[in-house]
């Protein structure tokens, strides 16, 4: 199972959404969880133990950048 959490709002919203990642991991321990967020917030989730991949969205250019 693959799950993508999308939170492209501001830093506080990303912090609040981290609880969702933990709940998803608890309920679906075998799932691959990815997270998409706005450029500049990626440091919050760097090396998160439950995330497979963090996708960075650059709103200004509309490009997605793969990190972590």
Task: Annotate the secondary structure layout.
Blueprint (H helix, E strand, L loop, with lengths): L1 E6 L3 H17 L4 E7 L14 E6 L4 E5 L1
Parallel strand pairs: 1-2, 2-3
Antiparallel strand pairs: 3-4
Which of globular, elongated, flat, extended, rod-shaped describes the shape?
globular
**CA(first)-CA(last) distance:** 20 Å
What is the chain-wise order of helices and strands?
EHEEE
- The helix/strand class is alpha/beta
- Spatial strand arrangement across the major sheet: 1-2-3-4
Q: What oligomeric arrangement do these chains adopt?
A: single chain
Q: Would you tell me the overall average pLDDT?
A: 89
| Proportion of beta-strand residues | 35-45%
Helix content: 25-40%
What is the rounded Rg? 11 Å
Largest sheet: 4 strands, mixed
Q: Please report the number of helical segments.
A: 1
Total strands? 4
Question: Could you please describe the fold and organization of this structure?
Answer:
With 68 residues, the protein is α/β, with parallel strands linked by helices. 25% of the residues lie in helices and 35% in strands. The protein has one helix spanning 11-27, and strands at 2-7, 32-38, 53-58, 63-67. A four-stranded mixed beta sheet has the order 1-2-3-4, covered by helices on one side. β3 (53-58) and β4 form a beta hairpin.
